[in-house]
């Protein structure tokens, strides 16, 4: 399954009737698309060149040409995990659960890479580098992602702010300015507290970077300056929470590495310093 086809699968519930016609052509005739002109694509799907261009942009591409390049680069590779049952059914042995968890992790990371927009990552990192402070907002399971990112960036000298208490975080968000940036995390993209805080940041002139499930029309994505997406999963027994956590951590880890690489020598110095102080604390030395 190509990256384009995977994105279409993610957005299947958000496609219009016209977009469904185009999606069917992409799914069944990917090689033919590469050689077709805009009008030929329209004729193949019974739509229009403008409809193809709109869908390409909805999938995160600049236009049909970029969509074709993605199809040509990826080809029509088989999906390694397509037939793997990742649901928990209650009858597994411990060995089965270990293997299943390994496959869950591998699949969630592979799927995240498929919809990864490198340019958006670069833009997010630039905003964080320039920011005086990085505010981080996440509720419930997303708060664990937020706290992990807080710990990482704090170790390399960035001023980051996150509180698991939403009221306390909102009180700090009231002081956010155009010199700061907010990283908002919500799998659904519809978490009321996160939407409220993100709108508050926008009102104060701050840039908003979001991490949400792949749906460019969700409320959080609509108000964000930079949109980062993770795959939408339809799993039972909270397996989806595992995959969304792993996918979100992949994105925040890449953001952290991008920040750390910006000034490698300074980052190395700060990490060495924190390790030295940790050793002193551990060994009881002054």
Automatic annotation (TrEMBL):
<dbReference type="GO" id="GO:0003677">
    <property type="term" value="F:DNA binding"/>
</dbReference>
<protein>
    <submittedName>
        <fullName>DNA-binding transcriptional regulator, MurR/RpiR family, contains HTH and SIS domains</fullName>
    </submittedName>
</protein>
<keyword id="KW-0805">Transcription regulation</keyword>
<dbReference type="InterPro" id="IPR047640">
    <property type="entry name" value="RpiR-like"/>
</dbReference>
<dbReference type="GO" id="GO:0097367">
    <property type="term" value="F:carbohydrate derivative binding"/>
</dbReference>
<dbReference type="InterPro" id="IPR009057">
    <property type="entry name" value="Homeodomain-like_sf"/>
</dbReference>
<dbReference type="Pfam" id="PF01380">
    <property type="entry name" value="SIS"/>
</dbReference>
<dbReference type="InterPro" id="IPR036388">
    <property type="entry name" value="WH-like_DNA-bd_sf"/>
</dbReference>
<feature type="coiled-coil region">
    <location>
        <begin position="1"/>
        <end position="28"/>
    </location>
</feature>
<keyword id="KW-0238">DNA-binding</keyword>
<dbReference type="InterPro" id="IPR046348">
    <property type="entry name" value="SIS_dom_sf"/>
</dbReference>
<dbReference type="InterPro" id="IPR035472">
    <property type="entry name" value="RpiR-like_SIS"/>
</dbReference>
<keyword id="KW-0175">Coiled coil</keyword>
<feature type="domain" description="SIS">
    <location>
        <begin position="124"/>
        <end position="265"/>
    </location>
</feature>
<dbReference type="Pfam" id="PF01418">
    <property type="entry name" value="HTH_6"/>
</dbReference>
<keyword id="KW-0804">Transcription</keyword>
<dbReference type="GO" id="GO:1901135">
    <property type="term" value="P:carbohydrate derivative metabolic process"/>
</dbReference>
<dbReference type="InterPro" id="IPR001347">
    <property type="entry name" value="SIS_dom"/>
</dbReference>
<feature type="domain" description="HTH rpiR-type">
    <location>
        <begin position="2"/>
        <end position="78"/>
    </location>
</feature>
<dbReference type="GO" id="GO:0003700">
    <property type="term" value="F:DNA-binding transcription factor activity"/>
</dbReference>
<dbReference type="InterPro" id="IPR000281">
    <property type="entry name" value="HTH_RpiR"/>
</dbReference>
